[in-house]
Amino acid sequence: MRGRRARRKRGIKPTPKPVKEITVQEAKQSRITHFLTLLSVRQKKKEAIKKFEETIRTDKSPPEKLLARIDQLHYEEGEKKMLQKFKESRKKHRELSQSKKE
After folding, report:
1. Which residue in 18, 34, 23 sits closest to 67, CA to CA?
2. Checking phi first, is residue 61 left (phi over 0); if not, alpha (psi -120 to 50) or beta?
3. pTM over 0.90
4. 28 contacts 37 by C-beta, under 8 angstroms
5. What is the pLDDT at residue 31?
6. pLDDT tens, residue by residue, 37-93
7. Which of 2, 35, 62, 100 has the most C-beta neighbours closer than 10 Å?
8. Phi/psi of residue 47, nearest 5 degrees
9. Residues 16, 19: Cα–Cα separation, whole Å
10. CA 92 to CA 98: how far, in whole Å?
11. How far apart are CA 36 and CA 48, in angstroms?
12. Phi, psi of 3, rounded to the nearest 5 degrees
């Protein structure tokens, strides 16, 4: 079996994958569950699911806006984690440089 580049070089085009038909409702549902799983992996499962269920329950906005809200929540969680990691790494670095000076 040849690699992808080798086949391309010989003029053999890649075969396109068949497109699976999916309804709008299914797409939205899968997206919501996708974010639920992402967050539950990153945090404690129960907290993430509670927060999202609450958001879904309390938000009376259309699904598009709800997805945007979920995106925003997910983004904010990521930002917090990144900031935390950055602060920790700076702290370690500072401690190392202090120990070198002494």
Report:
1. 34
2. beta
3. no
4. no
5. 80
6. 776 676 666 677 777 777 777 766 666 777 777 777 778 888 888 888 888 888 888
7. 35
8. -60, -50
9. 9
10. 10
11. 7
12. -75, 170
